[in-house]
Design goal:
The complex is a heterodimer. By secondary structure, chain A is mainly beta. Chain A is built from no helices and 11 strands. In chain B, about 40% of the residues are buried. Classes of the chains: A mainly beta, B mainly beta. At the A-B interface, strand 4, strand 5, strand 9 and strand 10 of A face strand 5, strand 6 and strand 11 of B.
Amino acid sequence: NAGVTQTPKFQVLKTGQSMTLQCAQDMNHNSMYWYRQDPGMGLRLIYYSASEGTTDKGEVPNGYNVSRLNKREFSLRLESAAPSQTSVYFCASSARLGAGANVLTFGAGSRLTVL
Amino acid sequence: GDSVTQMEGPVTLSEEAFLTINCTYTATGYPSLFWYVQYPGEGLQLLLKATKADDKGSNKGFEATYRKETTSFHLEKGSVQVSDSAVYFCALSRNRDDKIIFGKGTRLHILP
């Protein structure tokens, strides 16, 4: 099925470990995003990539790095995980439908726990 | 800066009740407005959208009207079902840079 695929779905890390969340979309979308979802905080944008070769910081970029590997793939890396990064992470991609209607398609999420 | 404010939950209703979830926004220019829904254990999915003032978005019995004068985009449904239990997010899309800003979400519980 077409859509956004994230891996892994679950991960447990110890403080200080590193890991990369992978995301791929097969809808030929130009823009891709990483959000984190925390109770009572809604969705917060970590980084986004408006097009292949560009990345920009969102609301909460500290402690994260991203790579837009090609048009399909956008990865999120935690270099030295901290307990504050325990969260559910969502990757999304978007296609402009004209008139500013930038509609997001989300992956199923990756639940990360940092001990 | 641009922002979206929606009513805090949880909202608990009985089946067949009328639903309103309030959403207001602050933005420069003329953003597009959206409601997304997140069912348990899943990612968000688009419920409806409106791209200009006075547009009405609708889907699955839900409606929302883009009110520029009150900067609002309230979600309504005339008769809710148990299957509507989910978290609902209001969002805006900024035309100038493709950034999308979400509200904090409203959890809806529908009792049979």
